[in-house]
Amino acid sequence: MSSFSGLNTATTALWAQQRGLDVTGQNIANVNTAGYTRQRAELQSVGGNAVPAMYAVSNQVGQGVDADKVIRIRDGFLESRAQIESASTARMTAQDATLAQIEQAFREPGETGIQAKLTAVFTAWGDVANHPTEDGARTAVLQKTATLVAELHTTSANLDKQWTQTRDSLDTLAQDVNAKTQSIADLNRAIKRATQAGLPVNELADKRDGLVMDLATSIGATSSPGDDGQVNVSVAGAMLVSGVSAIGIRAVGTEVPAEATATDPAFVTDPGGTRLALGGTAGGALTALSQTIPRYQQKLDVVARQLADQVNAVHAGPPMAYDKNGDPGGPMFGSGSVPAVPVTAANITLLITDPTELAAASFAPNGTNASADAGNAAKLAAMAKADTGVAVAYRQLIVDLGVEASVATSNLKTQTVVAAQVDASRESVSGVNLDEEMTNMLQFQHAYSAAARVITTIDETLDVLINRTGRVGL
């Protein structure tokens, strides 16, 4: 190797080590930047001329080092796992939040829930059984029953409100997803152009991959590599982003809680209208709309219907029941609609407003005096402990809700640990480690100093060759 080629080799060494220091500085500067992926300067030795000339061959040992390429340190498998686990965590989070809101709607246990109101009604009937001729005890029954009916209405309305708010969130989610898919397509276009022009694209790729992870959380999307540094994004078998092209999604279906089914509402591609089985937050929201909230609304309706049927059966007979005026008792609850429709928690109505019309007696009074018999009131009070009574049915509803909510919370905690482990593994590969960067900085610094020393040595050699050769005795 000639002295002048040695200078070139040392110069490439200086440039390569400086490049490594620049990349190290970039990593350190972005140690706290969300979504930043650690970069590394790829050092590659430059070999000598391997093609012989016509009458001579090259005996060069090499031409230095090349550091033009700066790569991102990523593990494709861990990135894919992170997308899957992020989608699962988001879906379970949505389910857990749904059940927590349903628990808030029922407000159990507590003094303001349906259970406390049911107990108060049956206790009031017990007071009537003890004092069948007193108007105060009868008035208390009507007041407690009216409060129970109002509580059923409120709980049903809260569930409907929760359903409506979740349904409205689907449109917002779809708009956010469409904006991100278009941004990914635009970044793909920029990355493709930069890659073909030999320009750096690492920061663009970090931003794009962050958007892909957001889509994984929102709808359960996954990505696959494309040409020229691009990625393709798909969900439920549909390609949302293919290179520089993107399609959107939109929410379709009913906006009325009572009309919800297992497949309505739903998400479809826009354009195209292909139905999508989404995961992530969207999947959790769809499950809440089509299954969870309607199921507990139906269970509450069953409780309201059972309350009306059981109380009406005793209050109206047979056998005959009589009010304070000696008249036969009639239905105490109805749906408030003409023609009549099945009783639900939303439409249950108290049909009696006059305390004297409460049928507390099992026998008609003799003469004009009110009957002192309280057999019917005692039957109504005993419903609180009946094995097949409405109180037992409601307690079973709350137990089922509590168990399901507890299981959802437990599953979410487990999934959160799994997702955290995957993120930690991914961060160990792609994240910036300051200790490692400091080590790299020292390595590049010493290598730079050594390369500079080589240049100094060659400079001194050339000085002797040029300025002292041939001057004997000097």
Overview of this protein structure:
By secondary structure, the chain is an alpha+beta fold. It has 2 domains: 3-73 and 433-467, no CATH class; 81-420, no CATH class. The protein has 9 helices and 13 strands. The strands form 5 sheets. A 4-stranded antiparallel beta sheet has the order 5-6-7-8. A 3-stranded antiparallel beta sheet has the order 9-10-11. A hairpin with a 2-residue loop joins β6 (231-235) and β7 (238-242). α3 packs antiparallel against α7 (375-382) and α5 packs parallel to α6. The chain is rod-shaped. The relative contact order is 0.14. The mean pLDDT is 88.
Question: Short summary of the structure?
Answer:
This protein has 474 residues and is an alpha+beta fold. The protein contains nine helices and 13 strands.
Features:
structural molecule activity, flagellum, alpha+beta, 474 residues, secreted, FlgK_helical, 13 strands, three-stranded antiparallel sheet, rod-shaped
